[in-house]
Amino acid sequence: MTQVVGILGGMGPAAGADFVRLFVQACTQQMRARGEPVRDQSFPEHWLAQVPVPDRTEALASAGQGAHQPLEPMLQALGRLAALGSRTVAIACNTAHAWHANLQERFPQVELLHMARETARHLAAQGATGVALMATEGTYRIRLYEQALAQEGLECHVPLPEERETITRGIFEGVKAGNTVLVQGAAGGVGNVVVQLAGYFGAKVWGTVAPENAALLENMGAIPINYTKSTVTDYVQEYTAGEGFDIVYDTVGGTTLDASFQAAKVYTGHVLSILGWGTHNLAPLSFRGATYSGVFTLRPLLTGLHKKHHGDILQQATAIIEAGGLKPYVDAEEYSFSSVQQAYEALEKRTARGKVVIECKM
Minimal CB count within 10 Å: which of 32, 326, 338, 357? Predict the structure, then answer.
């Protein structure tokens, strides 16, 4: 009988949600490896306890009263998971493992996985001999990974204090804050997929659309921007106070790609485009200190290179779809071979909402 699995989250919420995604993906890979069909009913029962937990790093830094504030909410959450039948529980936070022993002692009937020990065993099995550690200051302070890696005979390379400060800023100001993503042409066949994936991974998403497509974007959890009324200067100022977006994904090309260069966040922004085939002035991008890259998904098919990498991407996408994180949006208009011209015009005039499908009847 399959065990009930629990995930102790809330540190922060995106980490717990991402852990569920990785868990579903791992289950999918296991089923495929065993030659079993991947069905909704094949996944084990699993529960995510997403509870507010005080900052772990701050608690560890405090030597006085309240130093163990995170323990009580974690005990309560673990108790709920145990009551739901969970017999194996993972903690979706490295620093929270400072209280692993306390939690395990209070709930001996639950197998409480230890992230650092599991990681160390996996790396040792892969033949690794040394590891460079990037973590929060709290994780460094309790020597979580140094101890676990040493038990497996692995050397742990810890950054210098000034390097650790940079890493910590990246974790709390970048990763945990959540990226801001702007999708140009967000109602299109590619655009709506980008919107869904960005939201799935915890980003806050905006998308440029025509007024009639605003509801579609809102249904996907994103914020619509009416490109027929708002200029790039307008929406960058309104939504980012002039700073720009962390990531700008262009699916339109041409002058829209030019506008995307002006929408990237100062110094750290990045623009991607699937239609960067023309000649463009990079000065606006350079003046913002941002970066650009192109997306050409046909490359592995045309060259035969990097097929495995793209296969891995498709496997991950499949797991997200099966977890309900990505849904296809297909234009309501029906096309056949006799109406190919109309289908092309719908794409060219950007009147289609989602993917355009041409039915082939044999």
Answer: 338
